[in-house]
Amino acid sequence: MGEEPSSLQHASARGLPDGPMPKHVQLREILRELAGDELPHGAAVPSERELALRYGVSRLTVREAIGQLVTEGLLVRVRGKGTFTTRPRIDWQVHLASFTEDMRRRGMHPETVLLDAAEAVPPPATAQALGLAPQQTAFWLFRLRKADGMPMAVERGWYHPDSVPDLLDQDLTASLYTLLSQRYRLQLESGTQTVLADDADAETARLLGIRPGRSLLVFRRISTARGRPVEDMTSWYRGDRYQVTMQLDREPGEP
Question: Which residues make up the CATH 1.10.10.10 domain(s) of the chain?
């Protein structure tokens, strides 16, 4: 028996029907099903010209449907090559948890590459955040985080030396939060996190496997344990792999 035809092969030669649902929305949902259920990650989707002929719509309609799925992270355009399926964005519910824990909870295999580690005098903003004396040194870690082999984030973090003595002698390719808990008996209790957008510089782009200038989500987290600041970490996440969801509640008594 031959292979089961895909949803694209089921397309009517008459094109998409007229009706209350715009044609770009109809095509978007067809492509969503294709990208989510039928094609493997990294597979090419038909060209704009082929989709326009197959569904009897304009290339502008095709471009709009594809553009919406690119924005959602289901498709990615590669200049000179075409459009390809990709993994859906990871929805990050903001909470105080390690990358390793978060990826395992999602059924993905986490991996950490230690790029550099040192004891050095941190920038003034970090010294103030960690409550360090002038010219007091701290531990600095530079790590690449992966999930299922795909680069996801670059982390640069500073750690208070009084809280984590001999940190640089430990295995820094595993979960750092597990290390803090098991070796130093530190449970990170609270933190403040700042989220902003940035463009990838040449080094970060190379590590994440993206083009320089691509959009990144940047998180700066200052975490405390036993009422003292322990960590000042900044992470650069691929903007095409992550989205952030936050719970918003109205304060009691607000109009």
Answer: 23-85
Distance CA 112, CA 172 (A): 8
Torsion-angle region of residue 243: left (phi > 0), alpha (psi -120 to 50) or beta? beta
User: Could you read off the pLDDT of 183-237 as tens digits, one per residue?
Assistant: 999 988 888 888 888 899 999 999 998 888 888 889 898 999 888 999 999 989 8
This prediction has a pTM of 0.61
pLDDT tens for 49-71 read: 999 998 889 999 999 988 888 87
Cα–Cα nearest to 15, from 74, 62, 68, 77: 62
Residues of the chain with CATH 3.40.1410.10: 90-245
CATH 3.40.1410.10 fits 90-245, yes or no: yes
CATH topology of domain 23-85: Arc Repressor Mutant, subunit A (1.10.10)
Q: Where are the alpha helices (DSSP H) in 3-111?
A: 23-33, 48-55, 59-72, 99-105
The CA distance from 17 to 23, in Å, is: 8
Instruction: Flag whether pLDDT at 27 surpasses 80.
Output: yes
Note the Cα 42 to chain centre separation in Å.
17
